[in-house]
Amino acid sequence: GPDGEAQHVDGEEQAQLKKCKTSAAAMAGKPMLHYFNGRGRMECIRWLLAAAGVEFEEKFIGCPEDLEKLIKDGRLMFQQVPMVEIDGMTLVQSRAILNYIATKYNLYGNDVKERALIDMYTEGIFDLTEMMLPLVICPPDQREAKISLVKDKIKNRYLPAYEK
């Protein structure tokens, strides 16, 4: 009936609008970052894009339904974010995203030895991230002690390596 047709037209219009938005972003050449409204695993990707001088856009996941939609649409290979749309590709997995961006913008060393050094620093950042992420869900009665341990490791183990 008429209601069904109206819904069909609305759906078509929405699809066209979505295509226009996608085309505009693609034409602008700006990567689209999909993540929660926080630093987390996307932060080093933001840093690398900034270091490369690349402008990007972000689409925050605001509710479980936003994440479910990305999963149902088949856009998240492992059903998790971060996800970056760049150069017509949908990239997931932080290291893969970082390697792609670094290689594309000539920030991944001049030879295999430089890349190995860059990889060591990158893995250190991932170690730091792995230490900090659990603090978000840490029970309040254990939080101070765990934060103290993490601060100690960061201050005495990681920051000196980066400063050197």
How would you portray this structure in words?
The protein has helices spanning 2-28, 43-51, 64-72, 94-104, 112-132, 140-163; strands at 32-36, 57-61, 83-86, 89-92. It is of the alpha+beta class and 164 residues long. A 4-stranded mixed β-sheet has the order 2-1-3-4. It is flat, with a radius of gyration of 20 Å. Residues 1-9 and 14-23 have low confidence and may be disordered. Pfam families: GST_N (PF02798). Residues 29-109 form the GST N-terminal domain. Its EC number is 2.5.1.18.
Task: Summarize the structure in short.
Its EC number is 2.5.1.18. The protein has 164 residues and is α+β, with helices and mostly antiparallel strands. The chain contains six helices and four strands; from the N terminus they run H-E-H-E-H-E-E-H-H-H.
